[in-house]
Amino acid sequence: MKTNAIRIHQPGGPEVMVWEEVDLAVPAAGQVLLRHTAVGLNYIDVYHRSGLYPAPLPFTPGLEGAGVVEAVGDDVTDLKVGDRVAYANPPLGAYAEVRLMPADRLVKLPDAIDERTAAAMMLQGMTAQYLLRRTYRVQAGDTILIHAAAGGVGLLVCQWARHLGATVIGTVGSPEKAELAKAHGCDHPILYKSEDFVAKVREITNGEGVPVVYDSVGKDTFLKSLDCLRPLGMMVSFGQSSGKVEPLDTGLLAAKGSLFLTRPSLMAYTAKRSDMLASAGELFDVVEKGVVNIGINQTYALKDAPQAHRDLEGRKTTGSTLLLP
Ligand code: NDP
To answer: Which of 130, 217, 240, 297 to mutate for ligand 1's pocket (most ligand atoms within 8 Å of CB)?
Structure first.
């Protein structure tokens, strides 16, 4: 069988992504053949494409999608043809019309969750879940700082944290993004291109600092984020949209108040199937209850993935973005 997919033969800019016909094997034991209804766009796709996170060449990028099972391998018993499923996991290969997936990395969708919503939320939503519920367990009354608050992960964190009873401070790249973040539960949007976010955080918290910073911007914000924390606070460095974080002298953590530092990844938090199902289950629950709304703010044809990457890296997108086969 054949399918159309984005392929990368050499890492580089968005132009290295080419739309090609590729061969597909029949599903082996433990695999299913999945026809995508929608594919999720994530910043990690940029790291794979650019070579920051090396992948074996050539490869099809993408870690998130949703669709319908078209065929199952021999020993797959808990999924059948026609089931609606979603995923946010390795192996790479989501930027394809049809793909093979290990059955044990798929989650069946509840009736209330449509496939487009699922493809838009699985990766960013399970990330928001583990950040807020496991890495640092946000409590009612906490004031937290999230960078890129109007982005995919950002808008979900704002809504979910507000629901947990937190006050949310969020940095954003433009006044329009500030409005959007505010409408999604961000109490204090800060325009970090023009405002000193450390001074603002200190002002909002009466000089105390926050117990946790969720920092996915990396290079441009990392050191300043440490200055936003109160003693014994937790620095959660979970991404690097602006570039890689420089190596750190751990003495700095002592000097700034016995801080904790963690560099988490969704892959570790969902490596066990039971953890993945628990995380997806909590996500489905907050979405079904209307606590967290999934804003699909951009859609592109899958073959136009290069333009989607340009817009994501150019800070032109907000919320979630879908690639449609
Ligand atoms: P976003 O929608 O948040 O897009 C990235 C945003 O980062 C931009 O919109 C922009 O917002 C901000 N940004 C700040 N500086 C730059 C820069 N120099 N270049 C580009 N963007 C910049 O993406 P996602 O929601 O997909 O991912 C958010 C972050 O979370 C990424 O860093 C990603 O790698 C990380 N992540 C980590 C996971 C983990 O488990 N560790 C899992 C999922 C995501 P603004 O204009 O408002 O500054």
So the answer is: 217
